[in-house]
TrEMBL record:
Signal sequence, start to end: none
Keywords: Membrane, Transmembrane, Transmembrane helix
Protein's UniProt name: DUF2157 domain-containing protein
Keyword DNA repair: no
Database matches in InterPro entries: DUF2157 (IPR018677)
């Protein structure tokens, strides 16, 4: 049986005459992790932890000893670290996962290098220039490695670069327009990941990356709707609202089709927040605050009850 879960075994043990030995064997084969799995997890965990602490240590080293280092030492040490970390990637004896983790550490060091360069020469550049250069110079590594954590860093840098550009260069852009563009950008990325995940020719996309992108998209959608409601219905709002409703509807449909409770919990929560903002827009009196509080309690309770019922139904369908 494929994709056997712990709950499935509990149901089988309660409603069948399967022996305890059979259940125990099924748990060991399908649920419990063996020694090799734990060794792999610990190896990757300590490698990631070591590279993370090393990168953090390098950053704090420059921060603490900044005044005592000359320009050559500051730039030279950072460049040597970036080159050394990159050369490790080409060692033939390390596996692909370790290579990608090291490359992710190198990508963080590229940001440190640009930060050091900007501080030494006082380039006077905007913050968005720093993040833009960081993003551009790790693009090739991101594409070649195709490593999910590195893609997450890249997506965060893209969002940060665009946001800082609107704050420091395109200052006349309305805030709602910025939020709407961030929502559309992250939604498109999320849809691309969904299509890649369904393509059997491409390596499976990690669920956590899909969830983070979905959560980012829903967050921007919620912020945009609330801003549009409270700001007196900005001209961008009539365009944003139907798109958000369409995306939310498709998200709920996708959650039902894939039997995924994540979308069926996050999207209704966003809708509850948006409706609460709409009610507060109508009136800010004490009675409206009481009504909003009752609405949140009742709606959240109904969402939880529906999720529990759906989960029970899906478990019986397995």
């Amino acid at each position: 049986m494929k994709n056997l879960q712990r709950e499935d075994l509990h149901i089988i043990s309660r409603h069948s005459n399967v022996t305890e030995q059979t259940i125990e064997r099924a748990l060991k084969e399908n649920i419990y992790h063996d020694k090799a799995m734990w060794q792999k997890f610990l190896r990757l965990f300590f490698i990631t932890l070591g590279i993370g602490f090393t990168t953090a240590g390098i950053i704090f080293f420059f921060a603490y000893n900044w005044a005592d280092l000359n320009k050559f030492a500051k730039l030279g040490l950072t460049e040597i670290l970036v080159i050394a970390a990159t050369l490790i990637v080409f060692l033939p004896k390390i596996n692909n996962t370790t290579r990608n983790i090291v490359l992710t550490g190198s990508s963080f060091l590229v940001g440190v290098l640009f930060a050091v360069f900007g501080q030494i020469y006082q380039t006077g550049a905007n913050s968005y220039d720093f993040f833009l250069a960081w993003t551009l110079f790790i693009t090739l590594w991101v594409v070649v490695s195709n490593f999910a954590p590195l893609w997450l860093l890249y997506i965060v840098l893209l969002n940060t670069t665009f946001f800082l550009y609107t704050e420091q260069v395109a200052k006349d852009w309305p805030a709602l327009l910025v939020i709407a563009l961030l929502f559309l950008f992250n939604t498109v990325l999320f849809l691309i990941l969904l299509f890649l995940d369904k393509d059997k020719k491409i390596e499976t996309v990690p669920k956590w990356l899909t969830y983070i992108l979905a959560l980012g998209s829903i967050t921007f959608a919620t912020a945009g709707m609330i801003y549009g409601i409270l700001d007196g219905y900005h001209p961008v709002f009539p365009v944003l609202a139907p798109i958000v409703l369409l995306v939310f509807g498709l998200g709920i449909w996708h959650g039902i089709q894939t039997k995924n409770g994540f979308y069926l919990s996050v999207i209704p929560l966003s809708i509850i927040i948006i409706i609460s903002a709409l009610l507060l827009k109508i009136s800010e009196g004490g009675s409206m605050f009481l009504l909003v509080s009752l609405f949140i309690i009742v709606s959240v309770t109904l969402v939880i009850m529906n999720l529990i019922n759906l989960q029970k139904k899906w478990n019986h369908e397995k």
